[in-house]
Amino acid sequence: MEITVKNAMRIGPLSTSEIVAGHQRLDNVVKGVTIIEAPDIVNWLAGGELLLTSLYAAPVGTLNYDDFVKKLADKGVAAIAIKVGRFVDHIPEDMIEAANQYGVPIIELEPNVRFVDVMYPIMAELFNNQVVKLNYYKVIQERFTALALHCIGLETIIKTLEELIGNPVAVYDRNFKSMSTTDPQLETFVEVEDLYNRESLNDKLSFYRQMVQYPALGEEPVPQVVVPIRAFNQVKAYLTVAELHKRLQEMDLICLEHAATVVTLDLVKKVAVQEVEQKFQNDLLENLITGNIGLNNTLERAALIGWDLSKPYTIVLFNIDNIDGILAKSKDSPDKMYLQGLKSDVVSIITGAVRKHTKNYILGTKNDAIVLLWPSPGDQNGLLEVIKKTGKEIQEQIRNKVKKVSVAIGIGDAALKVHEIPRSFKEAQDAITFGRMIQGQNVIGVFSELGIFRILCKFAKQDELQNYVPKSLLKLIEHDKVNETDLLKTLEIFLDCNGNASKAAKKLFIHYKTILYRLERIKALTGMDLEINEHRLEIEMGLKIIHLLGKEGM
């Protein structure tokens, strides 16, 4: 229990003394008692002192009391007790005015009061309080240490804290989603004041108090004490107390400090377990998509973590751009942990979106990509629409939250058996590769919708594709460059219009006879006759390849 100036006025000789100034600050906390008889005492103060003086060294008229009292107030002095009748007959008026102005309580002591009679009782109370705090600190430490050693879990930790401090407790993740709470009404909250108005309670541990609204409790603002939980140089969660029943006192903050330590240990333990599990899952997934392990071994390892590989899956690949590049550039930067957190955020966004549509999915990471095995029972076409819609939601959330990265999505054909997973994974990769050439970076590519491009997926290297561009089309490209014409574009539009010259002319905003003339020029330059099916197929394939390679600067 802290001793305030108001409390001190009930102890020893102060109980018969009078407060003559600074009544507005009677809640100042007394941390010690000091006798002063030198004007430069200000230089030796730490704050919280009850100063005892007879003004022997600073009689009336010899000191600027306004300046003196202001310096004491700036140092955080609790109060000044002045004994009158020996060296001064009364407390100077300008000192009283300054005390009222700067909020420093002044106590008038009777002439016969000895300073030691004031000092000893108050110091005894302070010592007793310190012993009480130490004993309480020991009890609380032992209680929370037992919780930590027995790995009780987050729910028991916060329930214990609630019992000790008499207010409901909640833990939120770094996105302020509820992880555990002693009162369901605290599941969500909204901050109602600017962060600059937060009240700091502990600079070392970053405790602070803010005003919030809990929708389940109505619109009345509620004071909330927040403790950021840090692990691996990052804020991983927030331990909070809703001051619904009482304002937290010093003893409560001791409980909160110990609870924060145990919550941190619990989260670190969970993170370590998750990392081991995730590595095991990623290794297994790597072997699944590459086909590097035997079927029996695969099924045994999958069964250990609850994966059912007897069902069909559609492989969905998320290629995350820019994160690894940012990490490489910031290798020695203190922001590296933050950037690694960004990747975790992307995984969280994907997981949250997928959970809305299916439960028994399999998710893992591979370098800068995230691999998802989406259960595929029933209608494949209907499933593709759900996956594409989910993909758009994911891309939108990533754009809004993780602005430094972008994501491309590839969807392979269903893998009906476990040995077909590598094929479906390769198809998802091809869907991204060729989808980007057609649609750009943030593509949602579906392998089954690539059409003729699926044949081109068989060519691993770009220069192999170039070998299959008909020489006739290469002549046409060269002619356009030299003569600054658009015969290649005319040919593409004509074929897109299924050989309808009239429609093509309208699309090109040219006369019908002009397009007929251009088609004759194309025939003369290339030697290709569009009326012959073999020629037409070769041209269309060549145009597809040119279109793909054109994105790369052909």
TrEMBL record:
Belongs to the CdaR family. It comes from Desulfosporosinus youngiae DSM 17734. Pfam families: GGDEF_2, HTH_30, PucR. Residues 311-449 form the GGDEF domain. It comes from the Bacteria. This is Sugar diacid utilization regulator.
